[in-house]
Design a protein that fits this description.
single chain, alpha+beta, minor pseudopilin epsh fold, 5-stranded antiparallel beta sheet, 1 helix, 28% strand
């Protein structure tokens, strides 16, 4: 009599050894459908994260300029420009006539972000921060008391591939009150980012 460990093992039939071509095709189709459903949501999530980071950088730059003005008892300025489709910002001493010294250190935002310059459906620009010329940078100055030099407005940022998602930074009062906003379905004073 054979011991149970000595019994011959049965060969595994080849039909149960792996996946059939049909099963692999069905699995690939299911992965493709799930990816197609998830991709737009993922892209929107990534755009929102990029916008939040860019908004935070601009807000912090304005806070830094205001703090520097109070600390030094001098005028400080935040300048925002677009160079080769890249949004850049700088904090520097405010010069007369809003000129920007050549020694300014410019910082870049995410390359997928742009300043929203178009008109909304109420023919209002969402970006209203002061500009001296068409090609000049947007800017705001804070004086020795931390107040703006008569410049109020907002800078609105959008992803390059979707202007429906917006983030903005407001200079909302003459005493230099700063706040952040986002896109809304209903306008407030003809603006959708507040």
């Amino acid at each position: 009599m054979l011991h149970p460990k000595q019994l011959p093992s049965k060969p595994v039939p080849s039909a149960t050894a792996g996946y059939t071509l049909l099963e692999l095709i069905i699995a690939m189709i299911m992965v493709g459908v799930m990816s197609a459903i998830a991709a737009p949501s993922w892209l929107q999530f990534v755009n929102v994260q990029r916008l939040n980071a860019a908004q935070s950088q601009i807000y912090q730059a304005m806070q830094t300029a205001k703090s520097n003005a109070l600390r030094d008892k001098l005028t400080w300025q935040v300048s925002i420009r677009e160079v080769n489709e890249q949004v850049q910002w700088a904090v520097h001493r405010g010069e007369s006539g809003y000129s920007i010294p050549n020694t300014v250190n410019w910082h870049s935002l995410d390359p997928h972000i742009q300043v929203y310059k178009d008109q909304n459906d109420k023919d209002q620009s969402e970006t209203t921060l002061h500009k001296d010329s068409f090609n000049g940078p947007w800017h705001v100055q804070f004086n020795y008391k931390g107040n703006t030099n008569g410049q109020m407005g907002q800078i609105t940022l959008v992803p390059k591939d979707d202007s429906q998602i917006q983030r903005c930074v407001y200079v909302s009062t003459l005493i230099g009150t700063l706040r952040m906003g986002e896109d809304n379905d209903k306008p407030n004073n003809k603006k959708y980012c507040y």
